[in-house]
Amino acid sequence: MKGRDFMMETFSSTPKKPNTWLLLWCSCTLVLFYLAYMSGFNEILPNQNLNPLSTLTSHLYLASLPSIADEIRPVASTIEPAWTRTNFSQECALSWTVLALGEATLLSCAARLGRQHQRSALAGFGDPELLPRPPHPRPRVAFLFITRDRIPHEPLWRRFFRGHEDRYSVYVHSRPDYESPRESLFHNHHVPSKGVRRLSMSLVRAMRRLLAYAIVDPDHGSSNSWFVYVCEATIPIRSLDFIYEYLMNSRQSFVESFLPHRKYLTWDTEPEFQNRSLRKGELWMALHARHAVMILDDTTIFNKFKNSCKEWCGPDEQYIQTLLGQYCRRNSCRHCSGGMYSRNHGILDPQGISNWTTMYVNWTRPHWTSPNLLGVDVMTPEWFKDIQGRTVQTDGMFHETSAVAEGHHWRNISRDCVYNGVSNSPCYLFARKVNASVTANHLQSLPSSVLGY
Fold first, then answer.
1. How far lies 130's CA from each of 47, 123, 126, 341, 447, in Å?
2. Which of 18, 108, 328, 396 is 20 to 30 Å from 77 at the Cα level?
3. How far apart are CA 31 and CA 47, in angstroms?
4. Contact between residue 397 and residue 317 where contact means Cβ atoms under 8 Å apart
5. pTM
């Protein structure tokens, strides 16, 4: 009788409620896998060395972030470009005050957005009947300042930028404890920074951070198409109109990349890449957006430099120069413009990078690790005319530390500046290393017929 009553009670009782949290977890997991399938694992996980399955299931916090399918949606216009405030970008839930999500997340997010910006820009080309044309802002040149503290040539930069507010953007990486005064042109343009040291990976990290913040900038990130590295000792020697057209019409990034002296080829690069693929060059380069994404996407070559580049190795003068060619080889040139591999001269991307920079630097007199300082006695109107008219590079780092220069005097070496396949084109847009006192005492008085602005 008791057994019968028990069976009746069992069948007549109200069924228990399902576990709500379990259902929620399962639903989120299915949504994540669906989004991964629809957008491709590589878009979610740019680091192809990771296992997509284990990574997705181990990062459950992604379920709380905005949908990856909504990444193309523009950021709310209420977000200001004030790096000192705490705002969160809808695309990546990225903190604008500190690198709270970690540097890897910042770079991954920026690489993803960079690819979306390029796709968005390309969507404007094609048959208007077949392809919708989303509104896309005017392309900008992002000036990436790597400084210690103040920028002494600010009056000249202010004069250079005046009247071109829709063509440029500015980002400053300085000492973590420094912020430009409120009245400064550079106030509110400082990105979250860390201490840097020359010839170290800390400077490479600063370069990558500047690129990342320039791309995830909610105001101008989608329009930043070129990225120009400058320092506090840099001045423009052409008008912004000239520089803008020069960069926007170029089919190449301006990256100096040459085979260095044998002493720079002594550290172990295997198995990531061959030792003969190492390259060297000035770090003050101008990068197209496609190369910026490659730099942000990379972890393999970066980690190799971080762990092995110790003696006779300057990461800030070798990492990007080596990476751009190395990236082509590992990816069968899918992301490069006509890259190629040469057994005799290493890995190059001759159609993707110019192999020279637009920064004039004077290395011609004896020195140790820095170029000659440019003072009032040098920077005359005739000097400006000479540098602006140069079509052959004769003063770069190439003439000091390249394998070609190892057995020759620098005066016997020259390289034509080839622009979009045209030899003997104008070489220089900027100059360094300019004495801090020159602007106040001399350059400001020069007319626009000399400076170009």
1. 33, 11, 8, 38, 51
2. 108
3. 21
4. yes
5. 0.73
